[in-house]
Write a structure and sequence with these properties.
- The protein has 273 residues and is an all-alpha fold.
- The protein folds into 2 domains: 159 residues, no CATH class; 75 residues.
- It is built from 9 helices and no strands.
- The protein is flat, with a radius of gyration of 28 Å.
Length: 273
């Protein structure tokens, strides 16, 4: 009986204004994603047809070129669909990297006696990824949205647990006053400690990365040239001058670049600023 009454009350009251806004934005995002998948599929099919034609002319084998074109289509479709998701996650990581100092600045502004909204607006003026995102929150509030609605919109844009935790703490401060700012300070200190740990771990790994880069960029090319010179006298090895030139000018620099790209991908974002 109570369950039935509860359901009736929910139906009478209806969804809250905030729930309606969130559900609307979720529906829009789903529609945008469906459109993106449709366009990605069309582009993948279009490119795979050209691949089929090109490979078919080269190999004179329709079945083999069709299999290659099908594999290209599947891989390209997955890449195109995942690209915006990966981009959004990467941007969320950049915002998270700036978050500790931004939160500490808000806490400092509140401790000096400023109101929450003024502290948020002043802190958002700094040139950082977190500042830009919270500037959007302040802008949404100026347009008439409540803080909860603006933060919910930010959570929709940025799928990141620590950003959600920070927004939850900000909403708590707004609801209960400056006395609740200690939780935000603890969160900022926790994020800073996490960054320090990541920095120490990367410093330890950097020694190995440096040794690998030195080996690839200096030792391996020197050994290759020695091997070519000695092998041409004592073994049945023969490299043409063009091959040696291409390996020295093309292959080894490409390997060096790939190692540098790997090191860059392993470097924490907060160390790149």
């Amino acid at each position: 009986m109570k369950k039935l009454l509860g359901k009736e009350n929910k139906q009478l009251l209806g969804a809250s204004f905030l729930e309606k806004i969130i559900s609307k934005k979720s529906n829009l995002r789903k529609k945008e994603f469906e459109r993106h998948k449709s366009k990605s599929l069309q582009l993948s099919v279009f490119i795979s047809l050209f691949v089929w034609l090109f490979v078919g002319v080269l190999t004179q084998n329709i079945l083999q070129s069709g299999v290659i074109a099908l594999v290209v289509m599947i891989l390209l479709f997955i890449l195109l669909v995942q690209a915006p998701i990966a981009k959004r996650r990467a941007y969320s990581k950049k915002v998270e990297a700036d978050l500790p100092f931004f939160l500490l600045k808000i806490v400092t502004e509140i401790k000096t006696g400023k109101g929450f909204l003024r502290a948020l607006a002043d802190s958002s003026k700094e040139d950082s990824f977190a500042g830009k995102e919270f500037a959007k929150v302040a802008s949404d509030m100026k347009k008439g949205a409540s803080l909860a609605e603006a933060l919910a919109s930010m959570n929709e844009r940025l799928p990141n647990l620590n950003i959600r935790r920070a927004n939850s703490n900000l909403a708590n401060i707004y609801a209960h006053g400056s006395n609740a700012s200690d939780g935000l300070k603890k969160l900022a200190e926790e994020l800073l400690l996490k960054q320090q740990i990541e920095s120490k771990e990367f410093s330890g790994k950097m020694v190995v990365y440096a040794l690998v880069f030195i080996a690839v960029s200096a030792i391996v090319p020197a050994m290759f040239l020695s091997f070519v010179l000695i092998g041409s006298y004592f073994m049945a090895l023969s490299f043409t001058p063009i091959q040696v030139l291409l390996i020295g000018v093309g292959l080894f620099p490409a390997i060096d670049a790939s190692v540098l790209m790997m090191i860059n991908s392993k470097t924490p974002l907060f160390l790149k600023r």
